Amino acid sequence: MEVLFAVLIGALTAAGVYLCCLRQVFPVVLGLSLLSYATNLFVFVAGRLTLGAPPIWEEGVTRFADPLPQALVLTAIVISFGMTALLVVLAIRARFEAGAERSDAPAVTERPEVER
Amino acid sequence: MADVLIALLLLVGAFFGLVGSWGLVRLPQTMQRLHAPTKATTLGVGGVLLASMVYFGWVRGEWSIHELLITLFLFLTAPVSAFMLARAWLHRERGRRRATLPRPGASGVDWGVYQPPPEESGNGVEARR
Amino acid sequence: MSVRARLRRWLPHPALSLLLTLTWVALQNEFAAAQWLMGAILGVAIPQLLRPFWPDPPPVRSWRAVLAYAAVVLWDIAKANVQVAGWVLLRRPETLRSTWLVVPLKLRIPEAITLLAGTITMTPGTVSCDLAADGSALLVHCLHTDDAAATVAEIKTRYEARLVRIFGEGEA
Amino acid sequence: MIEVAAWVALAAFGLGVLLCAWRLWRGPDLVDRVLAMDTLTVNVIALIVTWGIWQGSSVLFEAALFFAMIGFVSTVAFCRYVLRGQIIE
Amino acid sequence: MAHLPVLPVLIPAVIAAVMVALTRQDVVLARVLAFASAAAQLAVAFLLLAAVREGEVLVYRLGDWPVPYGIALVADRLSAAMVLLTAAVGAVLLFHAVCAWDRRGRHFHPLFQFQLMGIHGAFLTGDFFNLFVFFEVMLIASYGLMVHGGGAARLTNAMQYMVVNLIGSTLFLFAVALVYNAAGTLNFADLALRVPTVPASDRGILMAGGVLLCVVFLLKAAVVPLQFWLPGAYGHAPGVAAALFALLSKVGAYALLRFALVGLGWASLTALEPLAWLTLLVGALGVLAAPTLGVLAGFAAIASIGVLFVGLAGAEAARLGAGLYYLVHSTLTGAALFVLADLVRSARRKEGDAVLGGQDFAGRALLGAGFFLTAIAAVGLPPLSGFVGKLALLRSIPLEGGAGAASWAFVLVTSFLLLLGLSRAGSRVFWKTQGDEAVATRGLEAGGVAALALLLAGTFAWSLAAEPALAYFTRAAEALLEPGVYVQAVTGAGVFR
Amino acid sequence: MGASAIVALPLLGAILPPLFARAGRTPALLAALTPSLAALALLWGQGAAVFSGEPVVALAPWVPSLGLEWALRIDGLGFFFASLILAIGVLIFIYSRGYLAGNESLGTFYAYLLLFQGAMLGVVLADNLLLLPVFWELTSLSSFLLIGFWRHLQDGRRGARLALAITGAGGLALLAGLILLGEVAGTYRISELAARREVILAAPLAPVILALILLGAFTKSAQFPFHFWLPHAMAAPTPVSAYLHSATMVKAGLYLLARLWPVFGQTDAWDAWVTGVGAATMLLGAVIAFFKDDLKALLAYSTVSHLGLVTMLLGLGSPTAVFAAMLHILMHATFKAALFMNTGIVDHETGSRDLRRLGGLAKVMPGTAGLGTLAALSMAGVPPLNGFVSKEEMLAEALAIRWGDGWLLWAIVVLATIFSAAYAFRYFSALFFGPLRLPEGRRAHDPPALLWGPPLALVVAVVVLGLWPGLAEPLLVAASASAAGSGRAWPELALWHGFGAPLVVSVAAFVCGAALVWRYPALSRRALAWALPLDGRRMFFAAQTGLARGAHCLVVRLHSGVLGRYVLLLTGVSLVALALGWGMGEGWRPQRPPTPVNGLAVIFVAIALVAIGLVLRWHQERLRAVLLTGAVGLVVSLAFLHASAPDLALTQIAVEAVTTVLLLLTLFFLPQHDAASLPKPRGAAVVAVLAGLVVGLLAWVMMRNEAPTLADYFWSRSVPEGGGSNVVNVILVDFRGYDTYGEITVLGIAGLVIYALLQGMQEGVARKNLHAWRFPFALSATRHPLPFAVTARVMLPFLLTAVVYVFLRGHNAPGGGFIAALLVTLAFLIQYMASGLSWTMQRLRLDAHLWIGMGLLVAGATGMAAMVFGAPFLRSAHGEVPVPGIGPVALASAMGFDLGVLLTVFGAVTLALVQLAFLGRLAGFAPNRTPMDPVRPRPSSEGG
Ligand code: NA
Ligand code: NA
């Protein structure tokens, strides 16, 4: 099972990084989504794999999954959701103010149009 | 006894579930394939959920009607999904299929996907701006 | 304010309230008094809160008709499942005669129309696909039928007629 | 006996998932893909419930409900997108 | 008093929540609340500083759970000073905010408070997952402030800033996972105790996480080669936001110190010295090439981070102390430069903050004087605190060995480059004017000028207060290099007092 | 105290003139004079003590730990320089009043001058090696302001920057040198350095220190090859030139050389460099000055030459040479200041200072001509003027070197003397004598007293000091004694020293100089022909432009704005970091036994891999990519479910649903396809695959690694101390509730920012573009199909019941506030999709802001409730509350916290989605208030 998880995490990471390199925002958003799956799984497996033993306390049970990474992943999921939401909205706003949807910005040495 | 019932329900569920998915692959037209999920939903999941109910109630003594809720939810939502999918397909295929599609009957009335409802078309607020 | 009006105000949908209470208890899987109480509270509170979202649910005229309808539909589902499984597994797909059916509607109550459309979809072999712009007919896709008119007639008699009985429609 | 039946059911739904995935891949239309996802979700629900029987654990119930929910929401959302562009208008 | 360590987080958090709930329409009330919050934060920060002045380490165990199971807040000399700095800069920038920025978009004040909450939280936490959370609070508030007011360049740059930081957060989580997997803890102090016991076979996992986390902090701190995001993002941000962001990169530096020196127990960060040189160089060259005052301020910030890291890359308390002294200076100066760029941007109608001559504008002389002083501080010329900072730094770097000499050379040569760049920019913007009559321009924003004056007064005061400040930070640096007291205090913390 | 006041008076007094300038120009002058004169009075008040060899000291700590202290010390040298600075300053102030035009800001000008004066005083009085560079840089800065005072002139701006750059750079070198000097010497008191000469000279760093210090001194004093900034600083108003370049700033370098003479003087390196550079500068400056037609340029190069002369003297290694240096500094200050002022008068009156356009001015402005001629003759070294006295001393010192050692120096000195006589002669002869030449349409006459008074005073000094040089002797002796040690025999100062080599050289110089002037036209043509192509300023600005261009290239390359490159860079750096970190361990082997694989997992991972692959292949088809990403999310959620993390699975799947909706809402406003033409950054695939491999490997390693964790504690305390059996939830709301507090804050902020961003689109460009935008596909006619709308209505109450259930059971079973919040959001989302924005919003009456704010407050308040009871923030309480008739009901305070979570999350997510949906209105889509199509035909109670 470990290998399966590792392969999944690796594939998600690779695809995520690749998509983040593209020149428009939307694929980058998808890439970040994939990356965040990878992250969540990665943090999760830091607590190792335990099958069939959810961390819900029952009298006499001694085998259970490490709950801490799960709690961390929950926090991370929520945060990355908030970030994704913000990013896509930012993409829309930028698209309608800049006139195009691009992940690139002008180089810093280019002088921008004067604005407030 | 319970074992047999549970096993039977499971097998029935498995069979119809598989048939549904198989139909999804096998049937040649999109609209035909649209029939697949209802099969998987009704007897497929239904069978399994019943099996689960019986299993937890009879075998483990933890009667639970949770599964019934899932079944109800699926029965409630699956038609809507199918309806929306069909509409989506009708909309996408509007150029090619509209001619072959039967009309609702009354003259001047078309299917909802192609025609705004009377109130809206009447006061002309439809569409943008 | 009359008792009935007061009751109506607190329990806009008594059946719904009951169902919610049952749902709660079912969810808890625990039949203690506390759960019934909690269920009852929710049964009152949630419809109150959501009153504007379901402004005037049609009253059910006959609960017996509902049961009968349910039985018919469940039986039809089982029957149709077997039938359709046979088509899917045994027939060559090219030989399926799929057609569009137009089911003219007598029903006018949205809930009833929805129920009919849902029933049609849930019985394998037919899927309700669209509603006429004025709500006068239902578009149904049939996976395989030899006699379209017969299928339409069956839908109307087996389901629509029963729904008319449940919701007391027909005068509209 | 239950175990064998559950195993068979798991295999069947597993196969069902694969078939759905195939349709998801092949399409050809977007509606086919959404449909495939929807059916896949249904299969997943069945799998989860069967898995619960297999494991003898009822902790997975909410998960099944949630999968049903997401299956519905995303199917409807995609359809609305195709139909109206704005899924909330 | 017992709750002192948590108050810097709670005050802005509660005030911001109240603002969100109640003051959506009422800017005046929001301003009143903002100033009240600033005053409260300042007061608390002073009390906190007073409480740790003699070297005490205040440990606040949230939920009363023992370390490492719960999260502990830790206030020591370093974190208390950082909190005070944050509170002070935040309070000063409010003046700028209320006269210019808080009406140019929605929710300015709550975002500002949340930003402060995030920074305070990051400075005070003793737990590196919690650090992640407060980084995110800080960052998302910064995104909000960064896009405040809109504009194409601002938005596209903000988007890049955001994406880069999201990837940074991803890396942060990867690193946390690795460290937790090998060491089984999330607490800095507890980690310090456990690191020596991690078997050699598992050190690879631990250190892979450790070094990766350092990379994340270097990214936040904008150290070369991870500086690329800063000039565009800060350069186009609203001035008041960018000025506040002068603190954000310091959070990265702070976290790096905490994590590497305390958590991982490294003896020093000398390996970073070459990066510090490059950072200095890139920053200084960027100042020469910057097309606008905003971007120029961004590059100046990078240069100052270079100087800061020349200090932090030392193994001696004096050098670290000098670096930390410089950190405060560079925060004040960086903020001043951003405020200034913003004032120019809003005063010059046609040219904005472009480094171009143009028509005379209202407030030119005043802003010119402000720029002159700010530039003096940024280059490190006397008598402002940049000079003392660089002096302290140079004095603490032994010239023996190539590294020391190189550090000297980089600090001095880049000071020269900064001098060139800033004098070029300043003489163009403030001197190269056509016609002596001030053409009709937007008026000068009094609040911004007040903020600028306060910040400059701050650098002047910081220069005068150099002796006690250096002593304070040198002791804070000693505690970083010998974290025994910190670790003991956190891990051995008794029940809640 | 006195010493401090002398420095502080001009510095602090600088604020006076701008204030008084409002009252008029004369009040401004008086405001400027007052601090200066006061300082002068204070200084001369210390004269007795200083001359008796008792330096006046002021001490105050600043940063003693760095060696930086406020230490001032007035000794002979300091007194000498300070007197020059203040005395000439007074004359300059008066002159400026007459010189600057009425519309120029005299107050500001005086302020700058006073700042400069104070800084200069600081330089010459500082007794601390680190305080000296403080004032040193201040002189650079204030001179920058003065040189660039006419900010509208490009030459002024460039000259100012040039001067600042060169002297500033020198200042930095000097700072480095002085820091090292102090470290080596073990003291930062300048007055204590002489005693440590041996220690310093023996230090290995001594050559470095010397080089750095000389760099500082040479740049400041415009020594070759740094001389070029000085002539360009002449773009300044003439009073500035007169002040900075005759008496003060450029003399700072000379002062420093004199000051450090006891430390480094009479060493080989010092003598060689100082003499060599000085002599070279002296000759070069003189030659160039001769060929300059611009009067100020002529004077500027002559200043360069004279500075070289003094430098050379300071390098000669004999105390008497130091005396000669001091002497020349004094004499030069007088005649050069007078000459600058004289030039200023000419410029002021004629509008030109070009010798090619001026001539014979003695006819129209005889007074000016007289003063100018006298000063110029002094510059030429003609007796009986003071220039002659110091030049004789200089020649005597230079020629005292043995021929074998110094023939080159002799040659240089003689040549330089000739040329300096020549340019001095040329100055007055060409300007004042011969036929009258004036720029067209100009008339000229002698200026008012404000302008001729100050030069007159100086010319009087020129004459008096020429005739009775002994008058200055005490001052010079005191100065020289501080520099070169007391108790020596100093040369007798006299106009007439008898015949000797110096006189011969002088006379020869006059003759040759006159000849040069006579042959000037021919010579100048030839000079132009082989004019040095080495123009320092042009080189400097070329270098600066080159540097800026190079910086530009570098900066563009590093900050290209291409996000992909940034991502790759960041990924690459991270991979390197991982490799480095991994390298610190050794010999890792799998420790945990592998978990058995099951077929379903293989199937799902395979599906996920295919879906990922398809996302990559089809990412251009965005809608399809969203769907496939959803499939991946489904598998991830199943992975959590399978690996014993039901809470995670629920959260992931719920978030997945909301995210899908979010992406679809977004996609509506974006292009439906990726633009195909945009190239990817090179190497993206390689880096991505590498990252995938590394991360996958590390994940595998972590899963197979065994190490202690915190799990047992949470497991055992969760129920008894946390009051809940869902350990993950107890961690979230209790053990690590603070994380959750931060987390919901993040979500709340996200909602606010999204709101702010979208609200901002109601105006400006965004609004315009939004209005002009068209969705590329045809839209279906009806909006809210009836079956969907009805189903949504029916579902809603049941879903809310489920929400309550999920919320309440969260502490003991999978669920909790966050999941419940997403569920309720989804429930309403279905409603929104089914019946539309307007209809649903009307019924929900939801102020999402209030929800967010209240949620955060509730969560915070629950945490703070503990503080009331003296427990730390977020301390939880739990127990069973007896309810009559029902029995005990388990309650935990954490539930309140969880409620806060619910409210915030619900508010934030709803705010985001609804606002996004609302954007359609801005794009011109008409609102629809009917909740279903077709509308129910029966008349109904619906409010519409
Ligand atoms: Na059907
Ligand atoms: Na291990």
Give a structural overview:
The complex is a heterohexamer of chains A (116), B (129), C (172), D (89), E (497) and F (944). Chain B has 129 residues and is mainly alpha-helical. Chain B has one domain. Chain B has helices at 2-26, 30-33, 36-59, 66-92, 94-97, 118-123. In chain B, α3 (36-59) packs antiparallel against α4 (66-92). The termini of chain B are far apart. Chain C is mainly alpha-helical and 172 residues long. Chain C folds into two domains: 3-53, no CATH class; 63-167, Alpha-Beta Plaits (2-Layer Sandwich), CATH 3.30.70. Chain C has helices spanning 3-10, 14-28, 33-49, 63-90, 110-122, 148-167, and strands at 99-104, 126-131, 137-142. A three-stranded antiparallel beta sheet of chain C has the order 1-3-2. In chain C, α2 crosses α3 (33-49), α4 packs antiparallel against α6 and α5 packs across α6 (148-167). Chain D is 84% helix and 0% strand. Chain D is flat, with a radius of gyration of 15 Å. The model of chain D has no long low-confidence stretch (mean pLDDT 90). Chain E is mostly helical. Chain E has one domain (4-491). Chain E contains 20 helices and four strands. Chains C and F meet through α2, α3, α5 and β2 of C and α34 and α36 of F. The structure holds sodium ion (NA) (2 copies). One sodium ion is lined by residues 591, 705-707 of chain F.
Q: In a nutshell, what does this entry contain?
A:
The complex is a heterohexamer of chains A (116), B (129), C (172), D (89), E (497) and F (944). Chain A is an all-alpha fold and 116 residues long.
Ligands in the structure? sodium ion
Instruction: List SSEs of chain E in N-to-C order.
Output: HHEEHHHHHHHHHHHHEHHHEHHH
Distance N terminus to C terminus of chain E?
Answer: 10 Å
Strand content of chain E: under 5%
Number of domains of chain C: 2
The name of the CATH architecture of the largest domain in chain C is 2-Layer Sandwich
* Largest interface summary: E-F, 130 and 125 residues
Radius of gyration of chain E over alpha carbons? 22 Å
Which residues of chain E sit in consecutive blocks of at least 5 with pLDDT less than 50? none
The geometry of chain C reads as: elongated
Biggest sheet, spatial arrangement of strands of chain C: 1-3-2
CATH topology of the largest domain in chain C: Alpha-Beta Plaits
Structural classification of chain C:
mainly alpha
Query: Based on DSSP secondary structure assignment, what is the total number of beta strands of chain E?
Result: 4
Spans where pLDDT lies below 50 across 5 or more residues of chain C = none
